[in-house]
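Q: Predict the assembly, please.
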Amino acid sequence: MSLAEILAQPSHWLTAQEQHPIVLSTRVRLARNLADRPFPPALTAEKTEQTEAEIAAVLETTKIDGQCLRYLPLRDISDMEKMVLVEKHLISPALAALGAGRGVALSPEHRLAVMVNEEDHIRLQVISPGNSLQEAFRLADQLDDALESRLDFAFRERYGYLTACPTNVGTGMRVSTMMHLPALVMTKQMQQVLSALSPLGLAIRGLYGEGSKAWGNIFQISNQVTLGKSEEDTLVNIEAVTEQVCELENNARQIMLAGRRALEDRVWRARGLLSHARILPVEEAFHLVSEDRLGVEAGLLPGTRETFAALVLNLLPAGLRYRHGGEMTEDQLNAARADYLRAAAVGS
Amino acid sequence: MSLAEILAQPSHWLTAQEQHPIVLSTRVRLARNLADRPFPPALTAEKTEQTEAEIAAVLETTKIDGQCLRYLPLRDISDMEKMVLVEKHLISPALAALGAGRGVALSPEHRLAVMVNEEDHIRLQVISPGNSLQEAFRLADQLDDALESRLDFAFRERYGYLTACPTNVGTGMRVSTMMHLPALVMTKQMQQVLSALSPLGLAIRGLYGEGSKAWGNIFQISNQVTLGKSEEDTLVNIEAVTEQVCELENNARQIMLAGRRALEDRVWRARGLLSHARILPVEEAFHLVSEDRLGVEAGLLPGTRETFAALVLNLLPAGLRYRHGGEMTEDQLNAARADYLRAAAVGS
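A: Predicted assembly structure:
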């Protein structure tokens, strides 16, 4: 399966049946390193490529839950393709900026993604649809076990898994849920939610991690602590908080529905602009798609839950350029985004 | 024909075939007073009613171009109906505020309207569709001649017709064209146009005269001088200026069309909001309808020229309350306006 074919596939979490009204997706990421050598930042070029070859060989012969992995060396990936992989959350911006001796292994529909020689030798992730932390962890854990049976991971009884950055030592696990919280934003309760999460060792961020804006009112909640807390405790903690935030969001939606006309006006205006505008900057497009989904979820607009996440990921610049097949100016991107949304909205 | 029936009729200038891309309507107004008595502000209540009766009797038996006039005493008109007449430009706000002894005579489809005992004993007006000053003047002149043959008008060889306010002495004529100038507004050229008109003895105002805002980018150009200038000179002057402003507006539209995508975006967004919004404040509604008409005129939107003016006049509060049949809050008005526009936009 070529990279082009892999990129052409929609991600499993976008197309799966198990969609949730608020939680768009769930992600589990594990950081692992080989025991017998320095972390990637301290490896020579030669040792980096040797490490890549060792890990890639294992990845390409590993099968999890019936899914095979295809290893793609970074040197075979164009800059445009790298940006598409970043937008799809399949590689990190940090990996995209690195050179030879790095790469990513992907399974069909992008359920599994394993970065090789980013900050750690191995960073494996599972993205699954909706609110499915246990399921995502089960898969990640299987992959981890499969790799550990053939590779010698750096592990100390006292600390757990060793990682390049001390913030990952221990479980090496980062778990996050991506949530659509328009009503909490509209009713100006996000600040309150943020301050409640931070003492729990949790972070809340925008769609593209630290420092990114919450375009489309999409937020990621993730754990900050990897040391001194078991995987199970972390999962339970994130699950409980995700449920609580969902409840707050649902309450905020109920409050907004009390002013029914005003909410109808908001969501129908968004639908009207999505189906009529000829120029749509990315931030406005996210905002409108967010309002539209809120309308669908609140039963005020016709449409289906499925469209939202799929739309959102198709609004980003790299994806638009990739589908266009070449460089595009900002104006061309804004026009193409509007054209895409109009065509997508026809059926709704 | 009852007042309710008269109000239910659409105005001739809105429905006539002779629509113009920029000039919505043309108005000629003549101020006349009876020779043998003081102007209305100086009349006793008894004399006011007597004057009303004399003039009403003449009006109700006058026929111009096959059109009869129906006289409606102000005391028989409800406050809500008065506001509707003001919105339709059939009486002035000043008349609406006065009491017994006043009234208005209307012909079918509101082509002729004669206010009795406003500031002058008689103020007759003709509104005609599009750019039709000569036609409007011809009708007004016929009505004036018909009335003068049966009433003794205050007239001095040296001054012309005498009027309560010195700004009307002479011809007693005020001529105006109502124009839709969105491109001049968008390209920020209106200030320039305004300063060019003032030395010509012309005024430019919003939809509802002095001090009113130019909602929907609708402007009225009218003469300020009635003394020492013949009717024909005044007509020619306004006609020439109207043509020039049309040319400027057309040039501005051509310039905007050069940035085709941006203009398409503007007008399609307006169409999208008009056909989807659930709450529309009056000023926003005017703005959107104005953009929509610009799109139709520029060939960017499907639709017909006719709808615009008709829509505009149906967005105003008194008309909405009148059709609703009673008092409405601001919220109810904004909701009813959006509902009306959505229904009206279905066919477009």
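Chain A has a mean pLDDT of 92. The two ends of chain A are 33 Å apart (CA to CA).
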